[in-house]
Amino acid sequence: ANKRIKVANPVVEMDGDEMTRIIWAFIKEKLILPNVDVQLKYFDLGLPHRDKTDDQVTIDSALATQKY
To answer: Which of 2, 35, 43, 65 has the greatest number of beta carbons closer than 10 A?
Structure first.
């Protein structure tokens, strides 16, 4: 039987820089994804990607947070 918790709506995932990125990946892979059936809307808010998108990714992630 599937014991994963079903989440009805997507969840916005905002990835950060350095250790926060590493810690979040560990938590997500070890604790969340094995136990929760959730659709993630991923946004890379690491500094290189924010620079590459002229901070548009920050705006897009905020709008997605409002939407979901």
So the answer is: 43
